[in-house]
Design goal:
By secondary structure, the protein is α/β, with parallel strands linked by helices. Helices cover about 25% and strands about 30% of the residues. The protein contains nine helices and 15 strands. The strands form three sheets. Strands 1, 2, 3, 4, 5 and 11 form a six-stranded mixed beta sheet that branches. Strands 8-7-9-6-10 form a five-stranded mixed beta sheet. Strands 13-14-12-15 form a four-stranded antiparallel beta sheet, with helices on both faces. Strand 7, helix 4 and strand 8 form a beta-alpha-beta unit. Helix 7 runs antiparallel to helix 8. The chain starts with a strand and ends with a helix.
Length: about 300
């Protein structure tokens, strides 16, 4: 496997900035791709060891392009996550004034994060989506658009000027990025981990979603993300992307996944990996009755009952 990481490019994206925070990135060739799909396909094709892509932001939730790519196609697994605080700059060609701007561009995920600023300062500007924020900056450099919302650090790369900086509609906005590779054994648990799965219902019936969530709730597992995505099989047909606290090696998580495997049409395991938002010593305590020791004690009690030793 090539010692390289694919990422959503071109150079100068928030994705590249977040990727370079990983220590192992310093020992890999970092290769920009034009889209999330092409970066993940590079991993599937064996052209890259892993891909680094955005998966969620704190303003709009899940990045649907990434979720849909993980839901469909040859299975992949998440191994790491990174959180990056996001603020935008309005990048323009030198000499451009605010009154000159008629068209603006950025990645679709950026629009909800600057919508109010845009309405106040450039109400008549036409929004044009780009493959990434850095690609929008490149298109401004080429004269395709008047301005781009991107990281201020991208200005020098594309010969642009930051006309405005610190643009954001929501304070403390963050984007979550994930390192995705081919399926293998998950890393050892750290004590502050996250498990991601995709669930397909066996059939549509009253309480179907409650049944799925009950497998987590009854074992004291907190959910961190729940998002439905259409399966493409018709209106009303959805699968569910879920992030849950814990690691597959935890007894409570393993039992929850076994329960889901029994009642779901399909379960896709997307990985168990360290959380980026807390350290292991900050992890919330497990609820009474849900620790590995308590699961083992309960299993031992059942075995003794079966042997008549209760």
């Amino acid at each position: 496997m090539p010692a390289s990481y694919a990422y959503l490019g071109p150079e100068g994206t928030f994705t590249e900035v977040a990727l370079r925070t990983l220590p192992e990135a310093a020992t890999r060739e970092l290769i920009p791709y034009v889209s999330v799909q092409s970066a993940l396909d590079a991993v599937r094709a064996g052209e890259a060891e892993a891909a680094f892509v955005p998966i969620e932001n704190s303003v709009e939730g899940g990045i649907t392009t990434t979720l849909d790519e993980l839901v469909a196609g040859e299975p992949l697994m998440i191994y790491r996550e990174v959180l990056l605080s996001i603020t935008f700059a309005l990048l323009v060609r030198p000499g451009t004034e605010l009154t000159d701007i008629k068209t603006v561009s950025a990645h679709p995920a950026a629009q909800p994060q600057v919508r109010n600023w845009l309405r106040r300062h450039l109400p008549d500007a036409i929004w044009e989506s780009a493959a990434s924020n850095a690609d929008a900056a490149r298109l401004v450099q080429e004269g395709r658009y008047d301005a781009a919302f991107a990281g201020e650090f991208a200005a020098a790369r594309y010969g642009l000027t930051a006309l405005e900086t610190g643009i954001h509609d929501a304070e403390n906005a963050q984007t979550r990025f994930v390192l995705v590779g081919r399926p293998a054994r998950p890393a050892a648990p750290t004590g502050a981990d996250k498990t991601s799965v995709v669930l397909w219902q066996r059939d549509d019936h009253p309480g179907a979603l409650r049944d799925l969530l009950g497998e987590f709730a009854s074992r004291g597992i907190n959910l961190m993300l729940l998002q439905s995505r259409p399966t493409g099989a018709g209106i009303g047909n959805y699968c569910f992307c879920i992030d849950a606290e814990g690691h597959i090696s935890d007894r409570r998580m393993a039992e929850a996944l076994m329960g889901l495997k029994r009642i779901c049409l399909q379960v896709r395991f997307l990985g168990s990996y360290p959380r980026a938002d807390i350290k292991p010593d900050e992890a919330p305590a497990t609820r009474p009755g849900t620790s590995d020791e308590e699961f083992m004690a309960a299993a031992d009690w059942v075995a003794r009952c079966q042997d008549g030793r209760f």
